[in-house]
Amino acid sequence: MNNKLVLLAVSGAFAVTALQSCKPQNTSSVVSGNASVKAYVAPGKYDEVYNFLSGGFSGQMSVYGLPSGRLFRVIPVFSVDPEKGWGYSEETKPMLNTSHGFVPWDDLHHVQLSKTNGDADGRWVFGNANNTPRIARINLKTFKAEEIIELPNSAGNHSSPYLTENTEYLVAGTRFSVPPDNANGDVPINTYKQNFKGYLSFVSVGKEDGKMDIAFQLECPGVDFDLSRAGKGVSHGWFFFSCYNTEQANTLLEVNASQRDKDFIMAVNWKKAEEYIKAGKGRKEKVKYVHNVYSEATHSASSEMKTEVTILNVKDFPDLCYMMPCPKSPHGCDVDPTGEYIVGSGKLAALLPVFSFSKMLKAIESKAFDGAYDGIPVIKYEAALYGEVKKPGLGPLHTEFDGKGNAYTSMFVSSEVVKWNIKELKVIDRVPVFYSVGHLCVVEGDSKNPTGKYLIAYNKITKDRYLPTGPELCQSAQLFDISGEKMEMILDFPTIGEPHYAQAVLAEKIQKNSQKIYKIDENKHQYVTKGEKESKVVREGNKVHVYMTCVRSHFSPDNIEGIKMGDEVYFHVTNLEQDWDVPHGFAVKGAVNAELLIMPGETQTLKWTPEKPGMWPFYCTDFCSALHQEMQGYVRVSPASSNTPLVWSLGTNLPKAEEPASK
Amino acid sequence: MITVIISSPFSMLILSKNKTMKNLIIITAVFAAAFFSSCGSSETKPASNQTAPAEQAKAETKDPNSYDPKRGEGKFTSESLALEDELDKNMAAEGEKIAGVKCGSCHKYTDEKLVGPGWKGVTTRHQPEWIMNFITNPDPMIDKDPAAQAMLEICLVRMPNQNLSDAEARQILEFMRKNDGIK
Q: Are residues A160 and A296 both part of a single domain?
């Protein structure tokens, strides 16, 4: 019946729906009539907001426009992307190097936009790799991952990469506590309590260039550090981490890590840690981790192995960390725009505790402690508690803020978003989501000044929401207008991978800085070809370097002969275009890797090992002009023993083979 | 009452007369607001008013009468160029270097066509300011310049914007003059 009504509405029978719309809402009529107008961005118009979504198990980050929900780009980060040559071109392979070697996949969970004075500054966006612990920095001029740093002593890099209000530090807390990297990890599993540790890495970020470095690590008890948030405003200088499995169980955590009434939110005084490090109190440990950097000058990445970190064991510094009891297996621990309130979301709790930063400081001062947990003082629950939101919903996970004194909490089990007032601890509104919501995002919602216009819910299950596509269905986002008292759903849109956390920022902070081309005269690639006159083929033993150019619509050279079996051929392709939105592609038959997509002014390299003698065509894969189909060429491969001379050309129909031409 | 008006032939007539998408949206919005008003729905506004720059640029240069096919369209005029009779050899040498990187893939310096026309004689076919405007501002000129459009019919590839600075464009012009025999 309801489906019919929707059809009727579309076909113009407004009378029926106009009456129907006053009836109580259910799953298909929850959208009100003007929703489509609110989410409609006309062809040729821009969206107001960029939304950066973690790709979850896709390992990538996606960029959507809001309010339209249109997908603009998938930025390859931790997983290879043959479409863009990411992890396949010689230049990008080092970006996916780790201390374990080349890793082609990971699981990207959380997204953080860089901040200045507690507001999104539109310079970089960071993402974490959960499986093989790393953090990536994406430059928002180029929308490209230009730095990845690995994290030693970590596993399940989940409470990451949350950052401080001036992007001084990113944190990376380990979810799966493990024996430290340089300890013998070959120990019985039931020695968890003795041998397993949870490390929190503090990664410094260069103020100008964004370069990341592991400043120090905190060695903490072996629990599961789940999520984190930096303090801001009054609480700047502190970090908050939710922890579960304070039972320190090592099997069937579903049951065994849910025994205690309360786990903890751990408050870390990172300014204090900084002082201890400066005073030389840290101990150095030998470890191995890589630091990968992509240079936009050489259009190439390098991977460096680093061998040392500085560690503070929090047991030895009793004024560094404090535990705030939090019911029950907390997941989100989110800090409001003022920095005063910290919201804990116990996955199994029937209430939402709100902690007060100023009360916490007083409790520390007056030593209102309730013993210690593995050497860390435990603050009395009531001493740091501002109050509790009673019966908010089932399965609270994450909270974002609108800057108007309200908080929005996702309820996984009851599939709803609940709006509540922070000061009054009263629920104001609740809306159903479809279904099983995880993270939430308000535009600039974790900053000091959220915009309070849109809220997006990222849902784990879509079931009946879209046309079915077999057993595997898309995950989805749902957009709400939160400018009024009531939340109003205005759009569903499917997402790539599984979105965990996402962040959104006003478009004006990014769009004006977006880079259009790489200047060819600034290209410092080792194998750049600046102009067709410089194109050539150079043999160095069995390595053959092809200095190739492309422009609408030909390659130079486009005929190459004299490649022999056993050669390794490197096509270094320089795009000579200097116009926006004119990439060229490059693919050669039988290449066992991928294509290249070469941006204007850029040089990229595809390695190709011929498989047998013959004629091998290559072509441009990115439709570039009316004569794109003509953008092709040939490589002749001869047996290893042949004496075919190495020749290359463009625009010359060479004499036939009986009269070999000399170059 | 409201629904009667919406479903009447008269309102359909309004819809069909207003052909642009914008108008359609406004009308739809008004209707939506109108027929939900009984439920206390709030006022509705279009989601975004931001206009893409390409659209703005088009709006600014709509008047076809303002186009001067001798000068082309761009920032250069014969006064602003004020060419000397004699060749500036250093400038021409710089121009040749830049042309090698940014132009030579498509243009020969003879009269032979490659992707685009050969450069021989270009300074006699076009005014210097036309050349300067065309190489720094190709897209708007290809859209309206008769000579550029005639060339596009032959070459079928729009000359790309190679992002030349004013100084680079001037150096290339000097190289073209040298290529045409000016000493």
A: yes
Total CB pairs under 8 A between chain A and B: 135
CB contacts of A511 in chain B (<8 Å) are: none
pTM of the model: 0.87
- Is there a contact between B36 and A32 if contact means CB atoms under 8 Å apart? yes
Q: Residue B53: is its pLDDT beyond 70?
A: no
Structure-block tokens of residue A352:
């939402």
For A101-131, write each residue's pLDDT tens digit.
Answer: 999 999 999 999 999 999 999 999 999 999 9
Q: How confident is the model at residue A2 (pLDDT cuts 50, 70, 90)?
A: very low
Tens of pLDDT, residues A441-464: 999 999 999 999 999 999 999 999
Distance, CA of A356 to CA of B19 (rounded, Å): 57
Q: Is the previous residue joined to A262 through a cis bond, with omega within 30 degrees of 0?
A: no
Domain final residue pick, A513, A548, A583 = A513
Q: Which residue of A has its CA nearest to B36?
A: A18
Assess whether A57 and A23 both reside in one domain.
Answer: no
State which fold the B68-179 domain adopts: Cytochrome Bc1 Complex; Chain D, domain 2 (1.10.760)
Q: Could you tell me if A164 and A293 lie in one domain?
A: yes
Does A33 contact B36 at a Cβ distance shorter than 8 Å? yes
CA distance B66 to chain A (A): 26
Residues A531 and A509 in one domain: no
**A55 part of a folded domain:** yes
E strand or H helix at A485, and its extent? none
The pLDDT assigned to A291 comes to 98
Structural contact between residues A439 and A112, judged by C-beta atoms closer than 8 angstroms: no
Residue type, A262: K
Q: Are residues A356 and A494 in the same domain?
A: yes
The more confidently predicted of residues A541 and B35 is A541
Q: Does A38 touch chain B (CB under 8 A)?
A: yes
Minimum distance, in Å, between the CA of residue A333 and any CA atom of chain B: 33
Domain total in chain A:
3
Cis peptide before A386, with omega less than 30 degrees from 0? no
Interchain contact, A18 vs B2, CB within 8 Å: yes
pLDDT digits (tens, 9 = 90+) for A339-360: 999 999 998 888 999 999 999 9
User: Given B7, B36, B100, which is nearest A533 (Cβ)?
Assistant: B100
**CATH assignment at residue A300:** 2.130.10.10
Give the amino acid at A520: I
| Boundaries of domain holding A360 | 49-176+185-246+261-513
Count Cβ neighbours within 10 Å for each residue of A382-393 and write b for 16 or more, e otherwise. ebbbbbbbeebb
Instruction: Assess whether A550 and A493 both reside in one domain.
Output: no
